[in-house]
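Subject — a protein and its fold

Tokens — whole-number codes for backbone shape
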Amino acid sequence: MKKSIYVLLAALLLPWSGALAQSTEPVLQGTWKYLRNFTFVQIDAQNRAYQCRIMPDLHVLFSTGQITESGAIEWSPVRFFSLYGKEFVPSGMDWGSGTIELRNRVMFLTAPTASGTATERMEFDKVPELPTMCIHYQAVAFE
């Protein structure tokens, strides 16, 4: 009889505790904002990444990338657009490859610096959505 009660309790509690652990685990999919400026990264269900940077002069830089299971990411060449939607000739800027990881609901993106001489680790917080300017260029990015 005791054994039956233990089995019944285990059967009732195990699925519930598993569902609790699963629902509280943070996920990488979604929209993220860099803490220091207007840089956003959106990750979809296919592990595609879209990074959009809105500069102080309202120019937009963006790139797409694919995230591997190991957390590596390789960015496509960066594209530049002016405030008025004119694409600039590429200046050779390349975000190259980096790593992406999630810790305590903060996403960390490690990538080469603009000069290419070192790497930087950027912290991103989850936000509800991309700004309108980034949404506009997202359609262009995945053409």
